[in-house]
Amino acid sequence: MDSEITHVPMCQININGLSKHVETALDHFCDTRDIKILALQEVKQKEALSINIINGMSTYSAGLDSLGVSLSVCNSLKPQHIPQLEDLEINIVYVAAMIGPKSVLLASAYCNPDTKSTLGLTKLLANIKKAWDYCKKSNIAGMIVLGDFNARSTMWADSINNPRGKVLKEFVEKENCELSAPETNTFVTSNGGSIIDLSLSFGEVIRSICPPWIDDVDVHQLFTGAPQRGHLPVIRHFSYKASTKPNNKTLAQPVFNYNSANWAHWSVYVNSFLKDYLTEKPEQSAEEMYTIFLKTINTASEMFIPHKRICKHSKPYWSDNLTSLSNNLRIALVDFKSKSTPYYKKIYESAKEVFKNALVKEKNNWVHEQLEGLNTKDSIMFWKRYRRYFLAEDENFIGSLSNDDDTNVAHTDAEKENILYDTFFSGRHLDQQDFDETHYTKIKEEVQYIKEANFLEIPLVSCSEQGEGNLNDEIQNKTNVQNKTNGVS
Q1: In this structure, are residues 157 and 132 in contact, taking their beta carbons and an 8 Å threshold?
Q2: Model pTM greater than 0.90?
Q3: Is residue 55 over pLDDT 90?
């Protein structure tokens, strides 16, 4: 059996204030339920949370100037904080994780219900949309936002509708994401309750999220206020097929393409934003200023520096054309194996020949590109790379080469190696470059000046053989004698 279903339990709770007692209760709660992802709202901490508040998890927090949120992710999921997506005015934290074979962006969010205005939720949803755009640009499979939105709507089985519920409903319909909620109240009071602890799913992960449920067993240990008044834990499972075969693929990582950056706009944004911020809030601590500076740099980078994807490919000469031809060859081979007729054999042999010729061409092009402008210092390293890429396997080869006068054509690997080594790798191609007479004259003048100044006649002695003061005196005396000789006072 090549795969099996694996479940990753996720839990979200509005904790209404985090303390040492609550940390202990949360650790026990996650351990007994095997929680891998824990999203907390209203942590009410004025400083960054301990990185190990939950055993075996890494914890990240944001929005600590207000009510605050945190996200704890099991270390086996390889969590990575993405602070450039966050906003100081919004309670949301983002962490990327590897859930099975997919890279997923996770978030813990909170919308303050103190005001009747929907502005806070509108800002939060705009930030979430920006994060989803980042996922699509960075080839992240999907995004899951676990949060207390304080939005009520009959769309997700709440008893009433409120303005925030209308805004959230319109957002879900417009962005084509999926809102998930339990069938019973997530916030309970003595006279009723509401369903406000929700999740938003984007992309490929939508079909991997199982329906949520309420865990109301011994919730008083979490000090949330429930079941009298407070929030109940909401648990979801992320399910995927885990392959039992080893995965040898190298994931391409998105990085900034600095060569294509718009540095002019980047500089203007950073300077203007920091200037305005310091004008509005001149009295800031060093730590706060440092945080603002990093946030500004990250935001400007995301806006004005495009991304590119890099991967340590074992075949650097590989191209999109080879990928397409390789896929065609694979299809032709499958058809020939299932239908062993002369017709399909001819198609397979034709696809194989086309791929083989294209492979040789791409290899030769790559070698020529690498050899352009190659200097002696880099030749040894390239020679090693050449041998690794083209001599490791029988089918890896370079076409025939000829020497300078085209009298002899090299066909064997040994002959090709000799031609390459005697030309490029020995540095002979450098002799054909134009001679820089200006540079040579300047260097020659500098050498002559050193000789005339007699600097080279100063004996080199260590501080252990002669005191530093004596050495300095001898150098000074040597200089004085030379100055008198040249008529310098």
Answers
A1: no
A2: no
A3: no
